[in-house]
Amino acid sequence: MATKHEKILQYIESLPVGDKISVRQIAKDISVSEGTAYRAIKEAETRRLVSTIERVGTIRIEKKKKENIERLTFAEIVNIVDGQVLGGKDGLHKTLTKFVIGAMKLEDMMRYTDAGCLLIVGNRGRTHENALKEGAAVLITGGFDTAEETKKLADQLELPIISTSYDTFTVATMINRAIYDQLIKKEILLIEDIFVSMKDTAFLKSTDTVREYHLLNASTTHGGFPVVDKHHKIVGIVTSRDVIGKQDDDPIDRLMTRNPITVSMKTSVATAGHRMIWEGIDLLPVVNDQGLLQGVISRQDVLKALQMAQRQPQHGETIDDLVKNEIKMARDDEETTVEFTVTPQMTNQFGAISYGAFTTLLVEAGSSALKKFKRGESVVENMTIYHMKPVQMETSLVVKPRILDMSRKFVKMDFEVYSEAMLVGKAMMTFQLLER
């Protein structure tokens, strides 16, 4: 049976896109307290079902599919540029296809302005009106207002007209940055992309016995199962190690591991994989905010997902991507060396290589050296870094990773970093190996 929180979320999801939502109205419609309604609306905002805008309120927006996540709604644009909605509030839920900077004559500007786009322009009243008639929303820079007739037209056409105090260049940069961030988010695999859903998940109830475990094990060949209570809330996890030597009528709730480590739908696959390594576990239950079981994720699922992600084309580059692109491997029978050039994007405020870029360089060099001996993924457990000399931008570096000790699960490595034959840095790292 659904909880009050879930009922509110289902109710919000059923509302037409563009509808306004208030805590008081939700509390009245569902017959719940305003506190419960407020918490549910906040989660709906996290799930991108609604958007809250100052001086406008909370509106139902279209939940975007992951493949179109780089598109922004006009409601999100208002938040990005700290804007004020002058008219067309009912169209804030709509998605923009592109943005156009109005820095040309009106006739030329209209050639680039079409339905669904956002025209960024200053205090040019006639341009505002013509853009709305073409089906475009308008973003007025410099904090300027527009004519009352234009505001009425925006309301009539349900196309937002927004004012911001920022200049045109700053606004375009902010929107471009937001789209770029969305591209990066699109590439990051989340648990919701690969998890085994509830309908395909085998689980046990806290009232079951070892007998039910063996029956489920025989039918699924799985070694571990999440354990839930009568409300489907996760209460534990039980594996083959827990039931070895136990009687068939022994209750599961006495044998299971209580308060198991769990993940949510929005947890990244990489984070889940690291957690599995550090904790030495093969199965993670996937739960929602109320602790209700949504599915499971296994170590095998994580490995497959990480291997597939490495084969996908990249669109939005992070600092890690920039560092990886500059790395050049040089292998021979005796040692592995890495050649690297420091670019301006990798420097700190003093013009030297940033700590993050330097750390990424060492980790990548270590991972590459490990692949000579071990297949699969690895994760850094701890590191100690020594900076001998500052490394300026456009400096060429040579990294020499050396394996000191290797076991089935751990590798200890030493690193030396040279610039023009001068030692500029050293490091010690311990890696954990991610095995199937």
TrEMBL record:
<dbReference type="InterPro" id="IPR010766">
    <property type="entry name" value="DRTGG"/>
</dbReference>
<protein>
    <recommendedName>
        <fullName>CBS domain-containing protein</fullName>
    </recommendedName>
</protein>
<dbReference type="InterPro" id="IPR036388">
    <property type="entry name" value="WH-like_DNA-bd_sf"/>
</dbReference>
<dbReference type="InterPro" id="IPR029069">
    <property type="entry name" value="HotDog_dom_sf"/>
</dbReference>
<dbReference type="InterPro" id="IPR006683">
    <property type="entry name" value="Thioestr_dom"/>
</dbReference>
<dbReference type="InterPro" id="IPR051257">
    <property type="entry name" value="Diverse_CBS-Domain"/>
</dbReference>
<dbReference type="InterPro" id="IPR046342">
    <property type="entry name" value="CBS_dom_sf"/>
</dbReference>
<dbReference type="InterPro" id="IPR000644">
    <property type="entry name" value="CBS_dom"/>
</dbReference>
<feature type="domain" description="CBS">
    <location>
        <begin position="256"/>
        <end position="318"/>
    </location>
</feature>
<keyword id="KW-0129">CBS domain</keyword>
<dbReference type="Pfam" id="PF03061">
    <property type="entry name" value="4HBT"/>
</dbReference>
<dbReference type="Pfam" id="PF07085">
    <property type="entry name" value="DRTGG"/>
</dbReference>
<feature type="domain" description="CBS">
    <location>
        <begin position="197"/>
        <end position="254"/>
    </location>
</feature>
<dbReference type="InterPro" id="IPR028979">
    <property type="entry name" value="Ser_kin/Pase_Hpr-like_N_sf"/>
</dbReference>
<dbReference type="Pfam" id="PF00571">
    <property type="entry name" value="CBS"/>
</dbReference>
